[in-house]
Amino acid sequence: MYIRSLNITTDRVQGFPYNTEAVRYAKHINLDQPVTFIVGDNGVGKSSLIEAIAYKLRLARINNTLGFQEESFEPIAELAEDLELDMIRDGRGFFFRSEDFGDYVIKGNIFDSFKSQNPTYQNMMFNYGQNLASFSHGEAFLHIITQRVKRQGIYIFDEPESALSPLHQLSLIYLIREHLKKERSQFIIATHSPILMAMPDALIYEVTKNGMQATPLQEVEHYIITKTFLNNPKAYFRED
Questions:
Q1: Each residue's pLDDT tens digit, 1-13
Q2: What is the CATH number of the domain that holds 67?
Q3: Structurally, how many domains does the chain consist of?
Q4: Dihedral sign from CA coordinates of 62, 66, 71, 74
């Protein structure tokens, strides 16, 4: 474990991202499991919250030449100043955003990035040298994850399911669980996927308009809706 808990120290609610539920309600949130999921509808601020964690820790990204200099991170930088992390220990890690993955593959940054990598990650990044274009989208994502998630560290993923089929989501669960058998790492993942949420022993925080609460899988809205629909799809399409 790396982060014992997090806390947004301001009561500010005006302006993005302070007007999102995840930021407003992130008060003394315990992160006492190796895997924590943050779930909720679009727009509740899941991504903003985990981006602020990654920014504060200066975690490596898929293309380390990016750093956190994009204009989109300006409000996140401000939020990070109001983010208090109770750290058990410092360590290296990796921050994955689905949009970073798409840009990285599409723009052909695979080889150009090698020249400017931190030596700590140089060997890991070199393993990307396999032609990712020869993989499916999900296979390319999993290939990168297997190369990055090798050492003990803190790993933050933002909606990884956007790059993964249901089968590949199961593969990601397997990769994480196998890694945790060997290393004392920590994963914090924002997701909409009930498949990922079902990872055994994971801690789930559901963000709603009423708060941010640790919630059993069977009580998470995403899970309930998905299960109810799959049990009886026709019930959702009845014509009066």
A1: 799 999 999 999 9
A2: 3.40.50.300
A3: 1
A4: positive
- Give 208's contacts (C-beta < 8 A, 6+ positions apart): 21, 40, 41, 44, 221
Owning domain of residue 160:
3-99+153-237
Of 133, 11, 28, nearest to 84 by C-alpha is 28
- In a domain, residue 81? The reply is yes
| 3-class DSSP state of 61 | strand
Instruction: List Cβ neighbours of 76 (8 Å cut-off, separation of 6 or more).
Output: 17, 48, 51, 52, 55, 68
Instruction: Report how far residue 34's alpha carbon sits from residue 121's, in angstroms, rounded to the nearest whole number.
Output: 23
Contact 129, 66 (CB under 8 A): no
> In this structure, which long-range contacts are made by residues 206-210, counting pairs with CB atoms below 8 Å and at least 24 apart in sequence?
206/39, 206/40, 207/21, 207/22, 207/25, 207/38, 207/39, 207/40, 207/44, 207/45, 207/46, 208/21, 208/40, 208/41, 208/44, 209/21
CB 164 within 8 A of CB 138: yes
Domain assignment present for 62: yes
Residue 135 inside a domain? The answer is: no
Contacting residues for 94 by C-beta, under 8 A, at least 6 apart: 59, 60, 61, 148, 149, 153, 155, 156
pLDDT digits (tens, 9 = 90+) for 145-171: 888 898 999 999 999 998 899 999 999
- Which secondary structure element, helix H or strand E, spans residue 234, and what is its range? none
**What is the pTM assigned to this prediction?**
0.85
Asked if residue 77 belongs to a domain, the reply is yes
Is there a contact between 44 and 205 (Cβ–Cβ < 8 Å)?
no
